[in-house]
Amino acid sequence: MRRETIRKESLPRTAPHLGDYGKECAGFSWQAARGGLQGLPGGRGLNIAHEAVDRHAASDRATAVALRCVGRDDRVTSVTYADLSRSTARFANVLRGLGIGHGDRVVTLLGRCPELYTVVLGTLKNTSVLCPLFPAFGPDPVFQRMTLGDARVLVTTAELYRGKVAARRGALAALSHVLIVGEGADDLPGTLGLAALMADAADTFTIPPTSPHDMALLHFTSGTTGVPKGAVHVHEAAVAHYASALYALDLHADDVFWCTADPGWVTGMSYGIIAPLLHGVTVVVDEGDYDARRWYRVLAEQRVSVWYTAPTALRELMRTTPRAGPYDLPRSFDLNALRFVASTDEPLDPEAVVWGRDVLGLPVHDNWWQTETGAIMIANFAGCDIRPGSMGRPLPGVRAAVLRRGEDGRAEVAGGHVTVLEEPGVVGELALRPCWPSMFRGYLHDEPRTAAAFADGWYLTGDLVRRDADGWYWFVGRADDVITSAGHLVGPFEVESALMEHPAVAESGVVGRPDPVAGNIVKAFVTLRPGFDATTATRRELLAFARRRLGPAVAPREIAFDQHLPHTRSGKVMRRLLRARELGLPEGDTSTLEHYAPQASRASGAAAATPEARPSGPDNC
């Protein structure tokens, strides 16, 4: 199943950075891409905060707005690049005064407030390591990640500290300081008020020499089993952040950019803070929670030109603004400034791409990446055709391949070697040559899991895909999600996408249920839109609809209605949890579980991965 290609002629209103895909790929090198950044003065290395803030503050961009913050009360405040340079210098001096230096971990547990951006970039200025945590995490996942990450400093609010950290503070052996944003530090023993510390700190700071390979960011990602993995990223990641925002998000200097992902996740950090500031654009920061009318109002009133959001959030908007209808809600706002819409965090169903074109006047561009890759790897570009349902094609400088899979769905490794599948249409594991600057340098304190992520010079993503004859990649599913039914390989995403085309379906999750004859049968859990009832007639209609779209070998045999599908906190339907509940199995790690309401939103030396465990860098392609 594939929708008709949306031709590039109907897309860009601004000349895109990537117009001729083949030519751009042929002429690209990571060494040349580094030319988009400045480097520390005097050849002292490369520091993300210098590239994102200080170089702009020392240029004609000094008075340009870096952050446009929309409060919960809709009050708007602006922070210029010069302002941000001074506040981040103050925070770097605060850390230095507390004895926090190179490689020490600074954890943030904050919502989308202006202070978060100051803390993130001030930490990087100080050559300390930033570890962002999602503020909706419960006490256990917060404690676990702070312990694994050797947290030295925690920056949070009084409310979050009381509810999630205070009771177990004594067990966090490495934690030296807790800094409280806002009121309340005076009532919390062992904490310090951030505002008072900032008021006493100087607003200039000289960034120490920073190697491009110094650890800068620690992002935790949960697997289906086991403890969370801390992915180590370095300052050189800025090169990939800059290039990917240029190509995949088509950022221009005069753009107003809004990434709805929470900065507690890698998307919100890489593309909500770092990448757009590297380009010197204006970043919209919305402190409010998701509400369809609010989001349309933010897009209109802040004159957002480039919008990066999640498929689950788009589906929430689709519920309130179906493609068939008068579109009263979005049409009551002036969205003329919007010129590019992209989506990530999970596969984007074709219906959402076409909904964007019909309702917003712009198709939604899907792209693919992971916490480990640190930056977008595969994308649908502003200046190229869109094939709805496809992840797109690899960015210039990224080499992707499809590897032959074994019985477990993962790449088949024989004698240390893998087999690259050249023929189109064959399903295998997506693999990447680890030669881009934002490639993670290993899992913190976990060399075995680091080593298991690589084989024969490839990074193994764990995602099953197929590549068509023209080089577009199509997501099939995670290796442990794919269903084998009567000898057919069924990708849950394809079935979910087909069901989403029916006007009754708001969302779906698809798993395999064991069957003595077929091995597994495809079962779909469906959330209905308002106005549709969970009746036998509705179930029969959906089964017939899917059978017509997909054919009997792929279509679901069973449909269950569920208005509260389990989601991760970043909005992905947890198929693993659906499967466990269906089969009566242990649910495993549920620290990232949350019934989704879209968020205004898919290490120092010895502690870092050992050199032997690190994948080769971009100069070793």
Automatic annotation (TrEMBL):
InterPro entries tied to this protein: AMP-bd_C, AMP-bd_C_sf, AMP-binding_CS, AMP-dep_synth/lig_dom, ANL_N_sf
Bias type Low complexity, positions: 597-621
The EC number(s) this enzyme carries: 6.2.1.1
Biological process (GO), any one: acetyl-CoA biosynthetic process
Classification via Pfam families: AMP-binding (PF00501), AMP-binding_C (PF13193)
GO cellular component assignments: cytosol
Domain AMP-dependent synthetase/ligase: 57-444
UniProt domain AMP-binding enzyme C-terminal: residue ranges: 494-572
Domain of life of the native organism: Bacteria
Molecular-function GO terms, alphabetical: acetate-CoA ligase activity; ATP binding
Disordered as annotated region, ranges: 588-621
Keywords assigned by UniProt, alphabetized: Acetylation, ATP-binding, Ligase, Nucleotide-binding
Record PANTHER family: ACETYL-COENZYME A SYNTHETASE, ACETYL-COENZYME A SYNTHETASE 1
Protein name per the record: acetate--CoA ligase
Source organism of this protein record: Streptomyces lucensis JCM 4490
